[in-house]
Amino acid sequence: MRREFVVAAYVIDKGKVLLVNHKKLHQWLPLGGHIEKDELPDEAVVREVKEESGLDVDFLQETHPKFKGNILKRPFIVALEDIDREHQHIDFQYICTLKGNDKITGTEECKWFDENELDDLENCSEGIKYFAKEAINTIKSLNG
């Protein structure tokens, strides 16, 4: 079994989630990709979001609140995804918010979706829709 480490970011702004239309899979996915050699998951999220959308992001999940040592950002979820019978992704998924400008200038087709638009979105798995809504609602609950 070949296993690879990847990251995904549910970028949330103004009650919407940013998804990318994956060229090869023809599916709407959270932004993200493979963690490069010697790269931390935190760094991979920031890099992948910047490459795909041109946006800068902050993490919702901070490090441990009472310990200030070398602790990585906490993922929203960690998923084990079967790519095929001999290939899996270990996917560190994060909730992110915008850090500055919201103008999309990256290399990929990205689009903002609210919860209702997610319901009607074709070419997007039910799992991604579920976690995208969870991410939107997590931010909403923090903002009151």
In short:
The chain has a single domain (2-143), classed as Nucleoside Triphosphate Pyrophosphohydrolase (Alpha-Beta Complex).
Describe the protein in words.
- The protein is an alpha+beta fold and 144 residues long.
- The protein has a single domain, classed as Nucleoside Triphosphate Pyrophosphohydrolase, CATH 3.90.79.10.
- The protein has helices at 41-53, 115-120, 126-143, and strands at residues 2-13, 16-22, 27-34, 57-59, 77-84, 87-98, 110-113.
- Strands 1, 2, 3, 4, 5, 6 and 7 form a 7-stranded mixed sheet that branches.
- It is globular, with a radius of gyration of 15 Å.
- The mean pLDDT is 91.
What features would you highlight for this structure?
144 residues, alpha+beta, Nucleoside Triphosphate Pyrophosphohydrolase, seven-stranded mixed β-sheet, 7 strands, globular
Low-confidence stretches: none
CATH class: Alpha Beta
Largest sheet: 7 strands, mixed
Quote the distance from N terminus to C terminus. Answer: 45 Å
Number of helices: 3
Count of distinct strands:
7
The whole-number mean of residue pLDDT values reads 91
Q: Which geometry do the CA atoms define?
A: globular
CATH fold description: Nucleoside Triphosphate Pyrophosphohydrolase
Fraction of residues in helices? 25-40%
The fraction of residues in strands falls at 35-45%
Radius of gyration: 15 Å
By CATH's scheme, which homologous superfamily applies?
A: Nucleoside Triphosphate Pyrophosphohydrolase
Topology as H/E string?
EEEHEEEEHH
Structural class: alpha+beta
Number of domains: 1
Can you tell me the CATH architecture? Alpha-Beta Complex
